[in-house]
Design brief:
Elements (H helix, E strand, L loop, with lengths): L4 H9 L15 H23 L5 E5 L33 H15 L3 E5 L7 H12 L4 E6 L15 E6 L4 H8 L4 H7 L5 E7 L9 H10 L4 E8 L14 H14 L10 H8 L9 H5 E4 L24 H10 L2 E2 L3 E2 H22 L13
Parallel strand pairs: 1-2, 1-7, 2-3, 3-4, 4-5, 5-6
Antiparallel strand pairs: 8-9
């Protein structure tokens, strides 16, 4: 939950809480004009960043630490960072050094949307308490992705442009076994007083029972602290054989189940175009809109994570990332009903390579991290 997602966030504010790819725009009256104006404004801001040689999405692993040991966690795969290093092999920062380092990256990359991930970001909750107000006061949309393993500061509940995304691994029995000490009971206590996005990655284990996904969506739809529910499919690394990896038939059934549930549960925020993207993911990172519009940096605040936040060598042909599917859906939108945003993005990135190269020449002679090589 995440990216030219700044566009999605804008449309969400003006379309009854649904994202741009769930419900493109209201169809009549003043509401339509407000949504159209906001949507166009975010497109123009994203377009301006791309023309200037920047990427609108910046994801930062703010720590290498996490008290959980979740099976299938991409962040702790052996080759997560730069395709060859585990996350814990890097040094990370604390205190003012972390706050200053994140602000330096924001000044360097000029993103419209920042995702703060980990590790577990709440390990650095004191630093985030100082950092988040500074980011949102700059007009940046911020997402913090957490397991809610500790209480979330109540002061964050009133920050504008902040989305708290809580990762949940299925129903209570399975989640508690995988994510202890971030059990259901603790999560529910720690999100009280907030309005969070619940995000679940569907794994093979969950597909062993026909009504599992609906039971999950029904439970979290009833929780006052959950403002919406996002669902991804497990994305394996190339050659991975694990208990989490979905078969082709399980992927198909999961997508069809989400398609059935969407009109039944208003908090389930995943539209038909996004589901279509999940059913037909890009074949490689070079074809992925999320990769082309985002920069991902690891816990030392220097090393890029490529080709995307999953790191390593993800099997793009079975990608289930909702962020990638959401941005892929957005790029299919036709501006003024004529120009696909994907065409606009491709051409604008080519133009943006010129000012990006000029900045590199004025600096240390190397292209900045937003142009890290896509494998």
């Amino acid at each position: 939950m995440f990216p030219a997602a700044c566009i999605a966030a804008s449309a969400a504010r003006h379309s009854g809480g649904q994202s741009v790819y769930s419900k493109w725009m209201p169809t009549t009256g003043v509401r339509w004009k407000e949504t159209a104006r906001s949507f166009a404004g975010d497109i123009i801001r994203c377009w301006g960043r791309i023309l200037a040689g920047y990427r609108p999405e910046l994801a930062i692993e703010v720590t290498r630490e996490c008290p959980l040991q979740c099976p299938g966690c991409y962040a702790y795969a052996p080759e997560h960072v730069a395709g060859k290093l585990p996350l814990r092999s890097l040094s990370d920062l604390k205190g003012e050094a972390l706050v200053d380092g994140v602000l330096r990256l924001v000044r360097q990359h000029r993103p419209l949307h920042v995702s703060l991930v980990g590790g577990e970001p709440l390990v650095r909750y004191r630093e985030l308490d100082a950092l988040l107000p500074q980011l949102v006061n700059r007009g940046i949309h911020v997402q913090v992705v957490t397991s809610a393993v500790r209480p979330i500061p109540q002061s964050w509940a009133v920050l504008p442009r902040l989305n708290l995304t809580v990762s949940i691994d299925g129903l209570a029995a399975e989640h508690d076994a995988r994510r202890r000490p971030a059990t259901y009971d603790r999560v529910l206590q720690h999100i009280d007083g907030h309005h969070v996005t619940v995000h679940c990655t569907i794994t093979r284990q969950q597909m062993q029972r026909g009504d599992y996904i609906e039971e999950f969506v029904k439970f979290w739809s009833a929780q006052p602290a959950a403002k919406r529910i996002w669902m991804s499919l497990y994305t394996p690394q190339l050659g991975e054989q694990s208990p989490e990896r979905l078969t082709g038939d399980e992927r198909r059934r999961a997508i069809e189940e989400l398609r059935r549930l969407r009109p039944l549960y208003s908090k389930l925020d995943i539209g038909p175009i996004v589901l279509g993207q999940l059913a037909a993911p890009p074949a490689s990172p070079r074809e992925c809109a999320f990769v082309s519009l985002s920069t991902c940096i690891s816990a030392d605040l220097e090393t890029p994570v490529t080709p995307c936040l999953l790191g390593g060598t993800p099997d793009c042909s079975t990608c289930g990332c909702m962020a990638a599917a959401g941005i892929g859906a957005i790029t299919r939108y036709k501006l003024f009903g004529v120009i696909p945003l994907k065409t606009l993005v491709t051409g604008s990135r080519a133009i943006g390579s010129i000012p990006r190269a000029m900045r590199a020449l004025r600096g240390n002679g190397h292209l900045p991290m937003e142009n890290a090589e896509v494998r």
